[in-house]
Amino acid sequence: MRRRYITLIEMLISLALLSFLLSSLFFWYRHLTIRHDTLAKTKWPLTEERYCDQRLQKLFSQIQLQSPFFTTRDGLVFIFDNGPHPEPLLSHHVLGRLYYDERNNTLSLGVWPLPKEEQTSPSENLVLLDHVTSLNFELYYPPQPSKKTVDPEKVGYPVPNEGWQSIWQQAYPVFPALLKLHVTREGKEESLVFAFELPDGDGDGDEELISYAKEKKV
What we know:
The chain is an alpha+beta fold. It has a domain of 147 residues. Helix content is 25%, strand content 28%. The protein is built from 1 helix and 10 strands. The strands form 2 sheets. Strands 1, 2, 3, 4, 5 and 6 form a 6-stranded antiparallel sheet that branches. β9 and β10 form a beta hairpin. The protein is elongated.
């Protein structure tokens, strides 16, 4: 029986078909890879924002409405329950400052022990959200239909206006009921809005006041 050899034209056709098949596979692989990367880039900021919201919800559920509680140019100072911590001085009731870190473009949380005496104390700085360009606060003081008897020791203290306001003074003897954070991120026209109901927002302010001569920068 005579042996049949593959001709040159048959080999060229086979190579052409193989090249077409490999090109098609490479095209679809590249298309799927680009699509996956695009979806990941779109989904990642949403994941970051959801994580930030969860951290803030937990943070403000543990807030202690007592002095100090006030806004600064770029942040909010308050006391909260930090729970157990490897550093004992940063456990349970601590001083927190939620602020916009302009140098690193982040929404950050600074944590310090309550200042009971002059000493070098440990601190912690946590990044809650990156690619941030601005941070603004809104605090809501509800209407007071029945005015309570004023404590003689608090006569002369300023009182916030009823409704929403962007500044909360350290001298206020009362606390807001609601808090909003307006966070703007890079590449987004609309701000993210995080809203929180503060526990006992109409607190009487009976806790001991802690005064600060000067705000410390993080």
